[in-house]
Amino acid sequence: MAIVQHITERKQAKEQLRRSEAYLAESQRLSHLGSCAMTISPREIVFCSQEANEIVMSEYAVLGPVDPQLGQYPAASILKAVSRKPVERVKDDTLILADQSEKAISQVRESVRELLSSKFPAEKAEELSRLLSEGTWTHDHPITYDTAKRFGLPVRGDIPSDFLDLMALYLQPVRRQPTVEYLLERRHSEGVRESRE
Fold it and tell me: I need a labelling partner for 110 at 20 to 30 A (CA). Which of 61, 120, 121, 123 fits?
């Protein structure tokens, strides 16, 4: 009797897991959100849902570069500043930051390359990973839908109207500092008042 009960519990657990996975897959499909799983050692992507293999953005949305920062400074800028001085004129803590910067850039570049490797030939994945991770632009540089398309990134613009309606309920406050902001439509300069605080 105990063996039958154990087998029944295993079957029920498997069915519950299968049902949960089906619900997750359907919710990701409907929401255009995805998930990936990666092992630490060896470092490899073991699963990515279809939704995680593409970027869904409106034609007015922008992406940003993914180059690392250490504290308030971009890693690429730390390396550039250090390279312009003789090493004996650079403080030890700045040399340590430069060492960390090299490592951070390498780690981010490798992660981006891994994510792109299943979608691009190796040479193109390497080119894009360097472009996006090595300080080509400042962090507030917008990578538009058209630019992302030109790069060959897997972008789509068919955002469901229900999703846009939902986003309209969560308008972001206008900030005085440069940042990326979600807008439902193109911002028009006429008639836009700037608040004075």
Answer: 61
